[in-house]
From TrEMBL:
Pfam families: Epimerase (PF01370). Residues 8-29, 30-85 form the NAD-dependent epimerase/dehydratase domain. PANTHER family: UDP-GLUCURONIC ACID DECARBOXYLASE 1, UDP-GLUCURONIC ACID DECARBOXYLASE-RELATED. This is NAD-dependent epimerase/dehydratase domain-containing protein. Keywords: Decarboxylase, Lyase, NAD. InterPro entries: Epimerase_deHydtase (IPR001509), NAD(P)-bd_dom_sf (IPR036291), UXS-like (IPR044516).
Length: 166
């Protein structure tokens, strides 16, 4: 039996991978854009955008990633090499902020800060090997994934508020 190593390189916060960090994400931003934007929007704080917000990112909902990983683990031994699992649909940070404000019904304003020097202009995975070898494509839209993620964060924040009131 051939041993396989699979590694997730980039995670995006609760619902968009890394859900084990949710408690930490709600209490203090960890630098992950989706969790930061959601917490800022739910608390009507300004949404922090670095630079002009035109840099793009791609987000994959955790259910899609798990489906891809299960398919990858069930492949025959001749499927090798680095394989990207992600969602190639790109969105600008400004569009993402607007979508989250809309979905949360927030009154948050957008606050622009200087762009860090090492911030990439674009992140978009090439998933052609996963599509061709696994028959895998992500199925969750960003909007649907955000709805689920926002609901999850709302429930965490309500639970934390109830705990604090005790």
């Amino acid at each position: 039996m051939l041993a396989r190593t699979r590694r997730i390189l980039v995670t995006g916060g609760a619902g968009f991978l890394g859900s084990h960090l949710c408690e930490r994400l709600v209490s203090a931003g960890d630098g992950r854009v989706i969790s930061n934007f959601i917490v800022q929007a739910l608390t009507n704080q300004p949404i922090t955008i670095y630079g002009d917000g035109q840099q793009t990112r791609s987000f994959c909902y955790v259910d899609d990633l798990i489906d891809g990983l299960v398919r990858l683990m069930n492949t025959c031994d001749d499927v090798v090499g680095p394989m990207n699992l992600g969602n190639p649909a790109e969105i600008t940070m400004l569009e993402l902020a607007g979508m989250i404000v809309d979905l949360t019904g927030s009154r948050s304003a957008i606050e622009f800060k200087p762009l860090p020097i090492d911030d990439p202009k674009q992140r978009q995975p090439n998933i052609s090997l996963a599509r061709d070898s696994l028959g895998w494509l992500p199925s969750f839209s960003l909007r649907d994934g955000l709805r689920k993620t926002i609901a999850y964060f709302e429930s965490l924040m309500i639970a934390r508020g109830a705990e604090a009131a005790r």
